[in-house]
Amino acid sequence: MLEVRSLAVRYGQHPALKGVDLTVAPGEIVVILGANGAGKSSLLKALAGMLGDACSGAVTLGEKALSGLAPHRIVEAGLALVPEGRGIFGDLSVKENLALGAFARRARDAQAQTLQRVLALFPRLAERQGQIARTMSGGEQQMVAIGRALMSAPTILMLDEPSLGLSPRLCGELFRNLQAVRASGVGILLVEQNARLSLAIADRAYLLENGRIVGQGPARAMLDDPAVQAAYLGGAASAAPATAGSGAPAAAPMPTTPTDPGPRPRVAPPPSSSVAADTLVPTRITDLVRLATQRQADDVVQQRAPQPAFNPGGGVAGVRPEATLDTLLADIERAARRARLAPSAPDDKVGDRSGTKGADSSATPPEPPRIEIWRRPGLEIHRRGSDGTMERVK
């Protein structure tokens, strides 16, 4: 069994994990749920020995202590990691990638038997052993990454976001393969963004929030928990925000009648990562959607109406206060264009512009634009003669 006690990770002054405790037994799937930045990937990297002095705590696999060991020693002990992004050798073939997974001394004696089990688990890899790994699809590359880790004959297999970038069909196939891996007796510690699928195949689950384990329990109970549904499964926003196992009281559901009169008072959100959207604004979301739809319809009607005339003395004539910004900008642009094309008034007419409006300057045809012609400088070539004089050659 993999046992983790008081595991902490710190990047400089920033703590990523704070006293994490968990266990994973052979033949079971344990899933870690948490928001982005909760510390899930840091947890797997710390267990794999990839963070060095940045982590502290006790990690044991069976009777062997893994704390402070180099990554290849941890693989020798029976703990393997499939990192996020797969990390396969793209220029090598499928067969060569799998062979590299058996480099650990514990896996060399049974390499042939392990390869047959991996190819039976992933029949597509058996068909494409000679194919270059980088030319395969994302789902097939993920199969190569998992198969390479299984070639090290691990007791516990850790996977970081294995379904990232895969289609729903490939996700379903991947999770069926993970169930087959569990049936072979290998324990799985899974960090997965698809909470619903991972809880459906897992035996137990941990909730990781801000670097701490805030809840744990059987996966089926987590799947049915209203708080977990609201936080990770897209459940109702009015569900209790309390984390499973935390014992926090459930929040009273907010009324959802769309005809609620008057603005609602602003309510402080509960201490949870999942907050109902309509508690953050004084107006209901349904009312906002209806108001936005009505304004959009008004804008369409107004854009179809004739463009108003521009009045230099009094702004835009005939424009209602609710005119769109696009209409006003268009009028301003037209007025600016006419001002640029109008000829400049003589000095003795300056007083007329400040007094009466006078004749419309736009009636006078604009002067033709002046074109400036620049001559390119020429190049002269001179040659010095024998008598020292300069003679122009070109």
CA radius of gyration? 36 Å
Order of helices and strands: EEEHEEHEHHHHHEHEHEEHHHEEHHEE
Indicate the CATH topology of the largest domain. Rossmann fold
Provide the CATH superfamily of the largest domain: P-loop containing nucleotide triphosphate hydrolases
* Strand content range: 15-25%
Query: Between the first and last Cα atoms, what is the distance in angstroms?
Result: 92 Å
Dominant shape: extended
What percentage of residues falls in helices of 4 or more residues?
Answer: 25-40%
| CATH top level label of the largest domain | Alpha Beta
Mean pLDDT equals 75
Which stretches are low in confidence, meaning pLDDT under 50 for 5 or more residues running?
Answer: 236-282, 308-317, 345-362
Largest sheet: 6 strands, mixed
Number of domains: 2
Task: Characterise the protein shown here.
With 394 residues, this protein is α/β, with parallel strands linked by helices. It has two domains: 2-224, 3-Layer(aba) Sandwich (Rossmann fold); 281-337, no CATH class. It is 34% helix and 18% strand. It has helices spanning 40-47, 71-77, 94-101, 105-108, 111-121, 123-127, 138-150, 168-183, 195-201, 219-224, 226-232, 285-304, 325-341, 350-354, and strands spanning 2-11, 14-24, 29-33, 55-61, 64-65, 79-82, 156-160, 187-191, 204-209, 212-218, 310-311, 315-316, 382-384, 390-392. The strands form four sheets. A six-stranded mixed β-sheet has the order 6-7-8-3-9-10, with helices on both faces. α3 packs parallel to α7 (138-150). The protein is extended. The N and C termini lie far apart (92 Å). Mean pLDDT is 75; it is low at 236-282, 308-317 and 345-362.
